[in-house]
Write a structure and sequence with these properties.
It is a single chain. The chain has 145 residues and is mostly beta strands. The chain has a four-stranded antiparallel beta sheet, with no helix packed on it. The chain has a two-stranded antiparallel sheet with strand order 5-6.
Length: 145
């Protein structure tokens, strides 16, 4: 299996001898699916596979661009409140418990227009530790949008 990343087009092309799976970082920072099917030869960009067209009745256009509607773009990781009308991949509600196994490096936070409270517990035992990683600056966070 090969994984190619094209920085210029912000696309990932995963393939084996039979299939290709191509995702892209959309202009709003979310992941979108461009293609899944018979193997394609790799190229610098598969942007032509993203269906963009004027949708006058779309309720979730992006910053006034009626051709970019999250209702019609296949999102790679759909979430509530992000315009995708399908079921989300994950939903975390007040009281939800998330277990992160030992040794898994992870990041969490809230969208810039919402809040997030984090309460962490570390279970004591042999070879356990808690390492707080570097903070994410406002500039870095803004680039994720």
């Amino acid at each position: 299996m090969s994984i190619c990343y094209h920085e210029g087009s912000r696309e990932f092309h995963l393939s084996n001898r039979d299939i290709s799976y191509i995702i892209t970082v959309l202009k709003n920072g979310q992941l979108g699916q461009l293609y899944f099917g018979k193997k394609l030869h790799d190229r610098e960009s598969f942007a032509h596979l993203l269906e963009l067209r004027h949708r006058p009745m779309a309720v979730c256009t992006y910053e006034g661009d009626s051709t970019f509607s999250m209702e019609h773009i296949k999102q790679e990781y759909p979430s509530y409140g992000a315009g995708d009308m399908r079921y989300p991949a994950v939903e975390i509600l007040p009281g939800t418990v998330v277990h992160i196994p030992a040794g898994v490096k992870h990041w969490h936070g809230a969208a810039s227009d919402s809040w997030f409270a984090h309460l962490a517990f570390e279970v004591s035992g042999e070879n356990t530790s808690n390492e707080w990683l570097e903070p994410v600056t406002d500039e870095q966070y803004d680039k994720l949008k």
